[in-house]
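As a point of orientation, let us examine one representative protein, giving the amino acid sequence and backbone structure tokens.
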Amino acid sequence: MSEDTNTEENAEPVAYPLANDPEAVATPDGVPMSDITLDALLAGEVAGEDVRITADTLEKQARVAEENGRPQVARNFRRAAELTAVPDDRILEIYNALRPSGAEKEALLDIADELESEYGATINAAHVREAAEIYETRGLY
């Protein structure tokens, strides 16, 4: 298994589109997609958290992409899957820290360490470290 993949060698193929198997896709609280209906929404039984994508669903999408010869798309799904563990406000802070005009090398390296140690987001941590190196090479600090 490479550092940027979460698949197992013997993972079962995933049906696509995932909506064809609504029991295979669930909310962060484990509610199956089949229970997310307009009636449930109108009755107040579905909250905003119920329609957020999960790391598991993104991993399934990554496997579909790989099975169809799209490794770059699979990598992007896995990057997104890692970020489901990071609070939204922190993602925005990280995004702002990555802007070349305001980036600071030590801050970016600290962010990479945080992503890796606190959230297990190794793909994203490597991405931030790469940005830090490129910014330095291009004199963007």
The radius of gyration is 18 Å.
